Amino acid sequence: MTKFALRILVLFISLLYPIVNAQIKKIGVPFISNYNSKTYKAASENWDLLQDSKGMMFFANHFGIMQFDGVRWGIVAQPENRSMVRSLAIDKNDKMYVGAQGEVGYTVQLPNGQYKYTSLVRLLPDSARNFGDVLHTVIRNNEVVFFSNEELFIYKNNKINVIRSEAKFDDFFEVNKEIYVSDNAKGLLKLENDALVEIPNSKEFIGMKIRKIFETKDGLILLTQKQGLFVCKNNQLKPFVTEADHLLKQNQISTGVLLSGGYFAIGTRQTGLIVIDSKGNLIQHINKQAGLQNDYVTNLKTDREGNLWVTLKEGISMVQIASPLSKILDASNSESKIYCSQIYQNKLYIATDNGVFWLDWNAYKNGQHHNVNFQHISGMSENVWNIGVFGNSLLAFEKNGVFEISGNSAKLLAKTDGAWQGVVIANHPDLLLVGGYNGLYLLKQINNSWVYQHKIKGFEESSRVIVTDKDENIWIAHGYKGIFKMRLNKTFDTVLNLQFYNDKNGFPSSLFLNNFKINNQILFGTTKGIYKQDAHSKKMVPDVSFKKYLGQESHIRLLKEDHQNNIWYISGENTGKMSQKPGGSFTKEELPFRKLRYLYIPGFENIQTTANGDVFFGTQEGLIHYNSTKNKKYESKYKAVISEVKCIFPKDSLLFSSRYDVLSTKTEQANNTLSPVLSYSNNALHFSFASLCYDQPDATKYEYWLEGFEPKWSDWNLQTEKEYTNLPENQYVFHVRAKNIYDVVSEQATFKFEILPPWYRTTWAYILYLILFGVLIYTIIKYQKNVAERDREQLILNQEKELLRNRAELNEQKLALEQENMAIMKENLETTINAKNAKVASNTVNLIHLNEILLSIKDLIGQIDKKNDFNTNFGLLKKINRIIDHELQGDQHWNEFEEIFNQLHDNFMQRLKTSFPELTPRDMRLCAYLRMNFNTKEIAPLLGISVRGVEDTRYRIRKKLQLSSEANITAFILNF
């Protein structure tokens, strides 16, 4: 019985899954990406859209066919008459059929990326060529049907069959490969065998202005412009009553599309997009206030990923209708930065920079988006960091203190120096501990009201993150310091015990620490995973159980348990949910939350869960809701595409591009291949690429590889262009692939090309080089022989000349040497002669003078008479003595000597007297004799003094010459 029940359960779940998978969220507004005319640089009006087999999006724009590859927009083709494009259709070979104003045709993509348009008007008879807008283009079997209000064109086998209306057609519908046409005179007609036939009761449809028909199990659902919806079953027509009738009938239905799961997306002219389910319940109403650019919807289509594309009178929007995430918006949409959220008494409260706001949650989640607005709680108008339910009270923690919210107003309970959050003390449900900017505060519940008690003494740190354990320990995380653990005294007014933990206690860093309470266990978020305190060593160590799922390389910013024992986390930039399995292990889910990357308020990340399974994320872009019953396919395959390839030189020399009218016909014919061959002058290329995944394309990353030039793939990056310069000659293949926000890697795109070598490295150039080299070698050899012969003859002649020149130079050198030796000898001889002449002259002068003195003395002696008396002889002797004294003191002979001496010794006496004016004549004479290199004994008789007198005179002269005792006076005189 158990096995049977299990099989039934499995069968039920398998049948239920497609239904669940197809659900469209009723709560909140889906994420919307808007593209205006300034973005895509074309006309604001768009009328139709389609997606080709690769995933490329195309739009019928007033300026032509517009393409979007996820990164770049561009007009890729225009009708032959340059009129606005109104409708598009594409076959399995990506051949696009185009309906325009007074024009029908098709376009195909050439190998060089260009789209070539071919008009089919030439196949029409002249009488049928005057028509207006082709509002619908449909491919059915092997034929293409073009619809205008005047005529219906059926293109088949290169022929066009024309069906005219007598009173003009109103609209055209394709229903499960069947074609219906609304005729103003005949009602609803059906196309059969290239003819329009009336259906039963067709006249009933006259004037209804049907805009779309869907086939369901309940019959045909008709969308009329002003009368709402009708159901036609068994040829009976009756109104289809919906919750959105007041919107549909007043705002003119313009188009519609059938979504998976039986939902209808209905576009209107005046109130945007309306989504209802198969029973007529209003699921979504998305208009300009909810995020669309314009309320006039011209067409609706879904892409492969389940996104709903909306073409508008002004712009294009992509609505992520399949996403489990949605934004909680109201008509005012005034608050966007959400610090905290809370559901209390069926009201949704949000904490913002400007206080607390609330809305009726029951009404909002039931689809009454446009009738429900956020209302401001009076009494608070500054930053509110947290809100929470404590006992039966809703408390808000604000810049000015703690407030209690009641109705639409707030009352100040405790004025503190800022309040971050509150936590109930373990085992004391009546005590509320409040973390402030500069310490802790205590509130107590008295008669169901919270009353401020006092500030806790002994702790003055900012207390933004607080948790308590079962032992009444209080853990406080300071993001820039570390973790504080404390216990209070019995009266809860003073810190009794305080411990501090940082990187010295085992944490990988003291910065960005957080603490959480999961399954009654205190855990710590760090920059390197989750830590806990070891019970024995009291050190902080990595938590092994969480390491398995979250690793140790990410910054754990938040951990939070929900009512189903799931663990929500924010790790690095990733948000995820860990769901516990029966064995105690966990499954990890991150992909649905990739859109939340970079949306949180740094440091104030918050996730709020409810018992009903609602999950709220407070972000910088408002409050985001998650419904776990909504399942989206995140691993859908998609492709990367190369948008454009161009040579940098010459400028904008395009090789591959889908942009309209950028490649000439000549280039088109020359590059009718995906492997262009380029000259060496074009060896610098620029590649532009994209991915055909439209879910948050600005977060898609790319890697590329130029095979033949690079050894491996590049790193993943956000760059959508790559440039290569100075590529050598080779055959290359450029590869590129993308990775979207769900980490799904695309199919790669490639572009092959070849760069030819420069003319001087071609085969013919090398043959020419070989021939020239041979000629050069022959010429060199012949030339070398001639040169060698001439050199040999010249060498002999040069040697003879050199020999004669060497002999002449040798003779000249010998003669010069002899002359130089003779000059030296002559100079030495002259010096010797001059010295001897000087000495001879000096001696001669002295001798002559001496002879004169001796003669004088002789005469006087001869006069001495031995017979004379003593007095006479004594007088003669005195006269002799005076003569001797006179001669010793006289200067006449010395002047003659000095004149000769100066001539021989370069005016020695004059120079000496000029330099040393204190010298006496006797000193000068002594210096002269020293100059003549006489010794003391030789000088003494010349001066007529003793040897001791010469020594004394030398001593006086040394002082006058200012010579030191170590200096040699003779050497000084000789060198003067």
TrEMBL record:
Gene3D superfamilies: Immunoglobulins, Winged helix-like DNA-binding domain superfamily/Winged helix DNA-binding domain, YVTN repeat-like/Quinoprotein amine dehydrogenase. The chain crosses the membrane at residues 763-781. Signal peptide: none annotated. The keyword Phosphoprotein applies. The keyword Coiled coil applies. Pfam families: Y_Y_Y. Residues 800-827 form a coiled coil. Residues 916-973 form the HTH luxR-type domain. InterPro entries: Ig-like_fold, Quinoprotein_ADH-like_sf, Sig_transdc_resp-reg_C-effctor, Tscrpt_reg_LuxR_C, WD40/YVTN_repeat-like_dom_sf, WH-like_DNA-bd_sf, Y_Y_Y. Keywords: Coiled coil, Membrane, Phosphoprotein, Transmembrane, Transmembrane helix. This is ABC transporter substrate-binding protein. The lineage of its organism: Bacteria, Pseudomonadati, Bacteroidota, Flavobacteriia, Flavobacteriales.
